[in-house]
Amino acid sequence: MQVSILGATGYAGVELLRILHNHPEVDIAYLTSEGSTGKKISDIYGHLRGIYDQVLISIDNIEKIAAASDFIFICLPHGHAMQVGKALENTKTRIIDLGADYRFADTATYEEWYKVKHIHKNTARVYGLAELHRQEIKTAKIIGNAGCYPTASILALAPLVKQHLIDPSTIIIDAKSGASGAGRSAVVANQLPELYDNFKAYGVASHRHTPEIEQELSSLVGKNVILNFTPHLLPMARGILSTCYAKLLPGVTAEKVDDAFNQLYASEFFIRLLGRGAYPTTKNVRGSNYCDIGWQVDKRTGRVIVLSAIDNLVKGAAGQAVQNFNIACGFDEKTGLSMTPMYP
Amino acid sequence: MQVSILGATGYAGVELLRILHNHPEVDIAYLTSEGSTGKKISDIYGHLRGIYDQVLISIDNIEKIAAASDFIFICLPHGHAMQVGKALENTKTRIIDLGADYRFADTATYEEWYKVKHIHKNTARVYGLAELHRQEIKTAKIIGNAGCYPTASILALAPLVKQHLIDPSTIIIDAKSGASGAGRSAVVANQLPELYDNFKAYGVASHRHTPEIEQELSSLVGKNVILNFTPHLLPMARGILSTCYAKLLPGVTAEKVDDAFNQLYASEFFIRLLGRGAYPTTKNVRGSNYCDIGWQVDKRTGRVIVLSAIDNLVKGAAGQAVQNFNIACGFDEKTGLSMTPMYP
Amino acid sequence: MQVSILGATGYAGVELLRILHNHPEVDIAYLTSEGSTGKKISDIYGHLRGIYDQVLISIDNIEKIAAASDFIFICLPHGHAMQVGKALENTKTRIIDLGADYRFADTATYEEWYKVKHIHKNTARVYGLAELHRQEIKTAKIIGNAGCYPTASILALAPLVKQHLIDPSTIIIDAKSGASGAGRSAVVANQLPELYDNFKAYGVASHRHTPEIEQELSSLVGKNVILNFTPHLLPMARGILSTCYAKLLPGVTAEKVDDAFNQLYASEFFIRLLGRGAYPTTKNVRGSNYCDIGWQVDKRTGRVIVLSAIDNLVKGAAGQAVQNFNIACGFDEKTGLSMTPMYP
Amino acid sequence: MQVSILGATGYAGVELLRILHNHPEVDIAYLTSEGSTGKKISDIYGHLRGIYDQVLISIDNIEKIAAASDFIFICLPHGHAMQVGKALENTKTRIIDLGADYRFADTATYEEWYKVKHIHKNTARVYGLAELHRQEIKTAKIIGNAGCYPTASILALAPLVKQHLIDPSTIIIDAKSGASGAGRSAVVANQLPELYDNFKAYGVASHRHTPEIEQELSSLVGKNVILNFTPHLLPMARGILSTCYAKLLPGVTAEKVDDAFNQLYASEFFIRLLGRGAYPTTKNVRGSNYCDIGWQVDKRTGRVIVLSAIDNLVKGAAGQAVQNFNIACGFDEKTGLSMTPMYP
């Protein structure tokens, strides 16, 4: 398969390269970057030296890129992918967008939260979270790769929502992410002296990943879910831990909770259920495509607490994209994704 | 004032020394340590070299220590302070226990959560959180210094609970702490390679600070509060951020929420209200006795989210102890506590 | 004393404020910032809220500032202080420049390494390292505060150079600094994901602190010293450790080495000698004005290895500036500088 | 190939498992641990869950283990491997020891620095650094895998020493390592609050890796080399950076230095030469088997400065062991080692 990456010099872009390097079915056609056109990618990222020394081109060459590519991974800020999607409408090239442009079934929601007009509304797109949408991904032309926080949060809550074990109106998601999630642009607030040995929340009651989580949980439960989602910034580079709370519906036992997880995820390779009373850590999944999940039932309060951990750049971005790509191509879903987490 | 510290070689003990060094009214009488008796404290902690080179003695000398001390700060694991308290019952020496032994009005709660028998039940004690118990602290013989997580969490929620603006049965506290909170003993799980670049929850639905928070909030609202408290371990040494959620009662506006904070804390020096829509960071209070508080009202869900940040070793331990000590002695509450936070 | 800070919103500027807050003889007259004129400094740095809420003005007001200030601390990039110095030539206002403009006795050296023309050459200036230049500082109009790396390195080597115990041509200084040394401007290379969990050298054989170290050591030994200085960037915010190597001259014993340190620094409050075989750590001096020094003599190679640790923002910048200020004002040198290091 | 790991629950042991998981020619026969016998390795290390759930056995089963294993990797503290080596003398099982027991050609040196008697002196062993000893590794029965610091330091200096471009008596190696190098046992000094945001030297003029480096450089230059080696502890988990200094011999130009590196390493896959004036970072090699090398010639002092970076657990331990294993088995040297470094 010939694949190209638009926006290859972001963290998701180079993580894709790390993963694809061990994918036996993939050749890299083109890599784009507007800020570093004409340079080798290994000039920007020294860790790629001798592995990928390809010269970066501009996205202006999109036609040439599309002609040479079976698949295009888009790692651009929101607003750009829909332009690419529209431009390639009549080509055979398939698209996996790691941004938000194609994540929403209802583009009005996208427009409301992202404050931009969607220019490619009436086209089929699939929400790129394999554990919930595997069938549709197989034949999709455009896949809107699930966001990082949503991946961790939806996977944590899906079994309980789907089995109607919790009251969806009581869902609270308190999530924490490493700073690579903020991307690579130069901002004073993300300088090491500012973030190191520091911890804070941001986007309280207003983060754009909220409607994405609500869309998927609403779809699972069959009614409109409104929830609280609070992201925080960890003083580290990679990893997301999502701590989710909800009231159990009357009569729901801890065993029923256990069953819900075991049933939904029994055959999911990338989901590791730690069980009730065991809790995930970000380091246990670092560098891998796993999502580790543990939970507890609090009899005092009648709540269930579900914790999930992913590497935001792998299962939360590039790894998930490759998982979706594998499904879309008919490859074994694990191809190129058999990395053991890196510990310590 | 002559003061002594029992268990001076823990992190809270040496933080007390750091603070007391700039307290004009304090002389250190004795420092105890069972593991390092006979050594200088600066042999254990090089940062104290030339500042405190006092020799550590054993707690076996408690009578001599008490005779020489107006105040004793106890920085020992729970279960020890009540023995000291009992032994000094008929002395004039006053006690501030940084552990849990004297935090509970109902010692049955203590016994249930700490799994030890309380041997000093029928004695007066005050919960050492000045913002809520200033009057009682003034004359207390025994002060049970508030815990680190409880300090951050109670201060965040007290105005809303006291003014009956939230439904107490909906309270969820998602808290995160630096690793110094786990103390200084050698444990594989706390080695740097294990905790660094890592994040995890622990004590889910079972942490001992839960009943302490519930005691204070119950007392404020006038009925029994049961809540969820989930602690997490940050990959850093100091700092607690507490993210608190609750449903607003019908008709409660954002302005009423603002008013509640402004009223309760208007004259509190150590509480800095950032206001609605502004959020605290742990680094902004590092090394200081401040508790920074910000909040948001989410109209979509009808919840209020309150965030508070403290330095767990200062306002969460040693600084709070000195604040209580100042009140108990009739000194200006800020004496020795005018440190500007250390940033970056 | 009325003091003003030019460039108050850099890390050295706010560290000055942290220290001066506890200085009984100081009032802040003006704070300048070109990027944030009109804002409160506590809007830029939340840790200062309620402590310093002063409005920032532009350096364009330099005449008004000078008229109101006994002392001006300059925390601007090199090239600016000499303009201020020249403009205030005929005023009574004294200057402590935390940059490089006034560190060199020979301005040709400055011009060669800093690639700018010096516009204020023929004026008296003192190298602001109190342990070596205390007398001259007392009456100086312009003090060129010693650089961070030079402070750690010069203090480590001064006793051996002064006593002619080492061959100066064999000096190698391998130094490591936290990232706050790079300042606060937004640079991709200093974003947390780039620096965190990472370590690297920079400025190899070309760093501008080299001639500053050479100037002082040359002056001590009475001949021209040329040496190697290699800075590295630690994945943390504060702290410098300098590891210095040199060949002992024939016949120099370990005891003579010990004596040299003890003699030169016997009455220096801010220098803590750990002795032979004991080594400093950056955390043991964090937040304080101490310079901790330890050393070893390697009989196998005939070399002495000296290690020194400072907080780059305190003894390496703001603390040293206040120490110089105290000397210049005739105050006790320790005034405002009695902070115990913050550990852990 | 059947391979077993003795001491599988150390950091080197689990890193071997991470690497071998992607090695197509390897089956794991047995894993030993004395502290966790009977447990699954994934009970100790959650990141291995679902990947390696094998039960740990005791080394008491060494005969059974040897009978089932073509190769045994030994990840035990020094002193143990020589017992295993002796016990397996008459078997066909080959050994790669990741400890120090078989690194020294002259066991007297081992006994002097490690303070233990060597019980397996008169047996052939190869120093396991492929770039220097590839031929001998091919047929070796016992391979003493090169140490972490020595790997980085020897590779940095080998070209210059071998080509007689530097004066070996002037070599100084200032090395810095992440804390995983200290292993996994519980020690107060290695707790996160102690090491985090901290930096220090240790083992000054006395570290056991000194004679190992000297052995290899002496062998290359053909005379006895004595040097200074100073290790430091970085506040991070993985990675070594070695900064090496030496005087160039008269007439040696920068170009000759460049040539030496290019010649010796032209066909070495795992050595990436960054060239003169470019410097390695630990993150650029993290998780990979690369050793990145850059250098500078300082005309002012006549010294060359060489910097090398490795991941101490990969090229400094497990990766190097697999590289040696591949050579010894006749496999492609890169088998299982094609991991792209993990960045950021």
UniProtKB/TrEMBL annotation, chains A, B, C, D:
One of its GO terms (molecular function) is NADP+ binding. It holds the Pfam family Semialdhyde_dh. GO terms for biological process: L-arginine biosynthetic process. Pathway: Amino-acid biosynthesis; L-arginine biosynthesis; N(2)-acetyl-L-ornithine from L-glutamate: step 3/4. One of its GO terms (cellular component) is cytoplasm. The active site is at residue 148. Its main location: cytoplasm. It is found in: Cytoplasm. Keywords: Amino-acid biosynthesis, Arginine biosynthesis, Cytoplasm, NADP, Oxidoreductase. InterPro entries: AGPR (IPR050085), AGPR_AS (IPR023013), AGPR_dimerisation_dom (IPR058924), AGPR_type-1 (IPR000706), NAD(P)-bd_dom_sf (IPR036291), Semialdehyde_DH_NAD-bd (IPR000534). It catalyses: N-acetyl-L-glutamate 5-semialdehyde + phosphate + NADP(+) = N-acetyl-L-glutamyl 5-phosphate + NADPH + H(+). Belongs to the NAGSA dehydrogenase family. Type 1 subfamily. Catalyzes the NADPH-dependent reduction of N-acetyl-5-glutamyl phosphate to yield N-acetyl-L-glutamate 5-semialdehyde. This is N-acetyl-gamma-glutamyl-phosphate reductase. The lineage of its organism: Bacteria, Bacillati, Bacillota, Negativicutes, Selenomonadales.
